[in-house]
Write a structure and sequence with these properties.
The chain is of the alpha/beta class and 280 residues long. The protein has seven helices and 15 strands. Helix content is 25%, strand content 24%. β8 and β9 form a beta hairpin. Bound molecules: fe (ii) ion (2 copies).
Length: 280
C-alpha cells in the first residue's frame, strides 16, 4: 500500500521565514498529482494553517477543491498546534471527531486500521494527549487486537524527546502515558507518522518505528546546542514522504519536490548511460 505523508503546510497569506506557504503547498500538490495519483492514502499531519485563521482554512479548502486529488484520493486533514480546532471544523464540517469533540477517527485501509489522533491543545504549542484521548486510543487498539487488525498511527506532535531543546519544550507532554500504550501494543502497531519538528526524523518509540517529513514550507535545522531559546532554519529543501506499507515492513522515501526540475534521469543503453533528453 502506498501512502503520501505530508506535514506542516502552514497555509498563510504572508510568507513565513522567507517562504510562501501557499505557493509551496500548491507545488507540493502539483507534484503529488504528477507522480502519485496511484497513492492509496494521502495524509496531512497538521499545522494546516499558521495562525488558525478562517481565511487560511478557506484557502486550503479552495486549493484542495481545485486539485485533481479531490474525489479520487482526498487528503486526510489533521490538526496541529498552529491550528484552531473550532475554526477548522467550521470550514471543514465533514471532519470526523470522537465523542468528546477531538478531531480523531479511524479508517479501514488495505493494510489495516489507520488511526488519526488529535494532539492539539488550545492556548499552547505543546502537544497534549489527555486521559480522554488516551482512553479512546486504548479502546481502538483493544478492538483492533480482538479483530486481528494491524494498526498505523498518525499524529501531529512528536511522541518522544528529539534532543533539540526548543522542540522538546513543545512535544507531547503526556509522553510517558502514551509510550506505555505504545509498548503494550507494539505487536500490532506498524508505524507512527508525525510532523511538527520540521526536520526529517526516524527512529522508534516504545518499540514502534516512526518517521516524520520536514514541512512543505520552512524546514528547520536540528540545533543541538541545548539552548531552548534557539530555533534554526536555512536553505533546506521542503519535502513530503512517500511510504510503502506492508506485512514485510515499511519503507519511507523523502521527496524534495522543489528539486524535481533539476533531476537528471539516465537510461541504461548498450554503450552506457544515456541522459533522458539525449535518449528521446
Ligand atoms: Fe509546524
Ligand atoms: Fe507543529
Amino acid at each position: 500500500m502506498k501512502l503520501v505523508h505530508i506535514s506542516d503546510i502552514h497555509i498563510n497569506s504572508d510568507s513565513i521565514l522567507g517562504s510562501d506557504p501557499i505557493d509551496n503547498f500548491a507545488r507540493c500538490l502539483a507534484h503529488v498529482e504528477s507522480r502519485h495519483m496511484d497513492a492509496d492514502r494521502i495524509v496531512i499531519t497538521g499545522d494546516l494553517t499558521h495562525h488558525g485563521l478562517e481565511s487560511s482554512y478557506v484557502k486550503l479548502r479552495e486549493m484542495l477543491a481545485q486539485s485533481r486529488l479531490q474525489g479520487i484520493q482526498a487528503p486526510r486533514l489533521m490538526i496541529g498546534n498552529h491550528d484552531n480546532r473550532d475554526t477548522f471544523r467550521r470550514v471543514f464540517p465533514e471532519a470526523q471527531t470522537d465523542k468528546n469533540g477531538f478531531v480523531q477517527w479511524t479508517e479501514e485501509t488495505p493494510e489495516g486500521l489507520f488511526v488519526y489522533m488529535d494532539t492539539n491543545e488550545p492556548g499552547t504549542h505543546a502537544g497534549h494527549y489527555c486521559e480522554q484521548r488516551q482512553q479512546w486510543l486504548a479502546g481502538i487498539l483493544d478492538q483492533a487486537r480482538t479483530d486481528g487488525q494491524r494498526v498505523w498511527l498518525f499524529m501531529h506532535h512528536n511522541p518522544i524527546t528529539v534532543h533539540v531543546a526548543n522542540a522538546d519544550l513543545i512535544g507531547i507532554l503526556q509522553q510517558n502515558e502514551l509510550q506505555s500504550i505504545l509498548r503494550n501494543n507494539v505487536d500490532i502497531i506498524g508505524h507512527i507518522f508525525f510532523g511538527h519538528c520540521h526536520y526529517t526524523l526516524s527512529g522508534s518509540v516504545g518499540g514502534v518505528p516512526f518517521s516524520a517529513p520536514r514541512s512543505t514550507n520552512h524546514p528547520c535545522w536540528p540545533e543541538f546546542s541545548g539552548d531552548p531559546r534557539v530555533m534554526a532554519y536555512g536553505p533546506l529543501a521542503p519535502n513530503y514522504n512517500v511510504c510503502f506499507l506492508g506485512n514485510g515492513g515499511t519503507v519511507v522515501h523523502s521527496i524534495d519536490f522543489l528539486n524535481e526540475d533539476d533531476i537528471i534521469r539516465l537510461t541504461a543503453g548498450e554503450d552506457g548511460w544515456i541522459a533522458e533528453s539525449a535518449a528521446e
